[in-house]
Amino acid sequence: MRERELSVSVAMCTYNGGPYIEEQLDSILRQTVQPCELVANDDGSSDDTVEILREFASRAPFPVLIEENPSNLGPTKNFERSMGRCRGDVVVISDCDDIFVPRKNEIIRDALMADPDLGCVFGDAKLIRSDGSPLGLTLWDSIEFGNEDQERFDHGDIVDALFRRTIAFGGVMGFRREILDVALPIPLPWGHDNWTALVAAALYETKLVREPLLLYRTHQAQYSGTAKVNIWEKVVAAARPPEQEKNWVPKGRSFGMLRDRLVENADRARSRSRYETVLGHAAAKYEHMTVREGLSSSALRRAATILGEAQTRRYHRYSNGLASILRDTVFGSR
């Protein structure tokens, strides 16, 4: 049974998006389901991003609520403010450099209207270069999230998609606003999208829509990006010291935070069995990451710990399997 028609808020965060933001704003204007509002937070842009937003607000057929942060908050906290200001039934996340497909809002809204137990929807994206030309690759292609992986997700196995890697790139997901009652505030070093997706997965059903919801722009200035890499490149990337890692990459303690937040909000879950499954994975990922982050500097002791952890299969369930085993054997603690 379909729900009443749901309203859609677009939560946009901007930072020096001048070269691209007009294309994104125009794509929001072309939506087959217009948003009830565009809630934009700027994180201290030094270019003309805010001026472009204000000009758009003067002609948009829906409210455009612009807030300029008094100091730079970083992407996670900037999105936290933007999402927290939304008042629509559904929240759709928007970076300032991508391009929505015309039916994005409609696809997400209709999926949520069709199933009251559904809380979060994930879609694919077409990758484009900075100049807008196609890369001939989708987001799911780039992270090797293939048909078998998608079918496992459809049957309720979300571990690979949300705990080992992530399909929760903000621009390709939409969710019920009440999920933010539990998700906010977002603890660092979580990213706004991955954290919100995991909270949503514990409280509600989740769903894939097998079509691109946006054109995902790849360029050097973007906050996060994707690329296909081989196993050794994965090993080397995972061996970077902490100061070289992006500040949205969750650590072991991050999954302890997730576990604790879910425990505090157990009564909000629509399905007890699903909630307990996600909670169990959060606890297991916390234990796995804690082991990896506490490896001994002694090669012999480290090897023994890695072997024991490998026997639990948690390297394959929550990390990158052989690549992570090899990385930890060669380089030691994360």
Structure description:
It is a single chain. By secondary structure, this protein is α/β, with parallel strands linked by helices. The longest helix is centred in the last third of the chain and has 22 residues, at 272-293. Strands 1, 2, 3, 4, 5, 6, 7, 8 and 9 form a nine-stranded mixed sheet that branches. It has helices at residues 21-29, 49-59, 75-84, 104-114, 139-142, 147-154, 159-164, 180-183, 192-203, 231-238, 252-264, 272-293, 299-311, 314-318, 322-331, and strands at 8-14, 37-42, 64-68, 90-94, 99-100, 118-128, 134-138, 173-176, 205-217. α9 packs across α12 (272-293), α10 (231-238) crosses α15 and α11 packs antiparallel against α12 (272-293). It is 44% helix and 17% strand.
Structural key phrases:
alpha/beta, 15 helices, 9 strands, 334 residues, globular
Q: Layout of helices and strands, plus pairs?
A:
Blueprint (H helix, E strand, L loop, with lengths): L7 E7 L6 H9 L7 E6 L6 H11 L4 E5 L6 H10 L5 E5 L4 E2 L3 H11 L3 E11 L5 E5 H4 L4 H8 L4 H6 L8 E4 L3 H4 L8 H12 L1 E13 L13 H8 L13 H13 L7 H22 L5 H13 L2 H5 L3 H10 L3
Parallel strand pairs: 1-2, 1-4, 2-3, 6-9
Antiparallel strand pairs: 4-8, 5-9, 6-7, 6-8
Helix pairs in contact: 9-12, 10-15, 11-12
Please write the string of helix (H) and strand (E) elements.
Answer: EHEHEHEEHEEHHHEHHEHHHHHH
Low-confidence regions: 227-245
Distance between the termini: 48 Å
Q: By helix and strand content, what is the structural category?
A: alpha/beta
The pLDDT mean sits at 91
Radius of gyration: 20 Å
Strand content: 15-25%
In helices, the fraction of residues equals: 40-55%
* Assembly status: single chain
Helices, by number, come to: 15
